[in-house]
Design goal:
The protein has 251 residues and is an alpha/beta fold. It is built from ten helices and eleven strands.
C-alpha cells in the first residue's frame, strides 16, 4: 500500500522551513512519498489557500537534493498551463536527478481566473492536456516525430530520456478524468470530488485501474476498503503524522 504526504508548499503558512520539516519527517517515519501542489496566479476566489504557493517542481528538485529514499510527486501540476515540451524536460530532469523517484500527478484545473491571467483558453483544456501527455511520453521514449493538433515536432532530439519513465497520476473525479487515467495514465488520483463510495463504484467498473486518492487521514481506511491501493494524505500537524505512522507504518 502506497502512503504519501501532502507538503505545505501552499497556504498562508507555507515556508521553506515547514516544507523541509514535513518532508524530512515523512522520510524518517517511513512514508512512501511527498507531494506538492500547483497554482501559479489566482484571483479572489482562489486566494484561500492558493494565494501563496511555492512552485511544485522547483520545490521537489530542492527536496531531492537532501533526501535519500522518499518518492516525490505533484498533486497536481496543471498541465494545460504549461508548454508540454518544456514540462517534459523539467520532469525528465527531475526524474534523472532524483534517481527515479518522481511521479507526475496531472490535473486540468478549475480556476478560470488563472487561465485568463495567463492568456490560456479555459475551454478545451482537457483535450489539450491529453495531447500534452501523449507528447511528453513520446519525448521520454526518444521519439523524433510527433504530429498533434496543438504541438508537433519532426526530426527532433530532447534528452535525457528518463529511466524509468515517471508514472503519470491523473487527478480529477469526472468521467473524463477516469477515461484519461485508463487511457493515458498509470494511476487515478482523485481528490475532493470522490468519496469512498465513488472509488468503490469506479473500481467495480474498472478493477484493473490503480487508485490512490488524495484525502484526509480519517478517510484513508474507508478508501482502502473501497479498493484504493493507498492514499496521499494532508495532515493537520506533525503530531497527526506521527500518530498515523505509528498505527500504519512498519517501525
Amino acid at each position: 500500500m502506497h502512503l504519501g504526504v501532502i507538503l505545505p508548499n501552499y497556504g498562508k503558512d507555507a515556508s521553506p522551513a515547514a516544507i523541509r520539516r514535513t518532508a524530512g519527517l515523512a522520510e524518517e517515519l517511513g512514508f512512501d512519498s511527498v507531494w506538492t501542489t500547483e497554482h501559479i496566479i489566482v484571483g479572489p476566489e482562489g486566494v484561500d489557500p492558493y494565494g501563496r504557493v511555492y512552485d511544485p517542481l522547483v520545490t521537489l528538485g530542492w527536496i531531492a537534493g537532501w533526501t535519500e529514499r522518499i518518492g516525490l510527486g505533484t498533486s497536481i501540476v496543471l498541465v494545460p498551463l504549461h508548454n508540454p515540451m518544456h514540462l517534459a524536460k523539467e520532469v525528465a530532469t527531475l526524474q534523472e536527478l532524483s534517481g527515479g523517484r518522481f511521479h507526475l500527478g496531472v490535473g486540468m484545473g478549475w480556476h478560470r481566473d488563472e487561465y485568463a491571467f495567463m492568456g490560456v483558453p479555459f475551454k478545451g483544456r482537457g483535450r489539450r492536456a491529453d495531447e500534452a501527455i501523449r507528447l511528453m511520453r513520446a519525448l521520454w521514449s526518444g521519439e523524433s516525430d510527433f504530429e498533434g493538433e496543438h504541438w508537433s515536432f519532426h526530426d527532433a532530439t530532447a534528452e535525457p530520456h528518463p529511466s524509468p519513465q515517471p508514472e503519470i497520476w491523473v487527478g480529477g473525479s469526472s468521467d473524463h478524468a477516469i477515461r484519461r487515467a485508463l487511457g493515458l495514465g498509470d494511476v487515478w488520483h482523485p481528490s475532493r470530488g470522490s468519496d469512498p463510495d465513488h472509488v468503490r463504484q469506479v473500481k467495480d467498473q474498472h478493477p484493473e485501474l490503480r487508485v490512490i486518492p488524495r484525502t484526509r487521514p480519517e478517510f484513508v481506511d474507508a478508501m482502502v476498503a473501497a479498493g484504493a491501493e493507498g492514499a496521499v494524505v494532508r495532515f493537520p500537524d506533525e503530531a497527526a503524522m506521527r500518530e498515523f505512522a505509528r498505527l500504519r507504518l512498519p517501525a
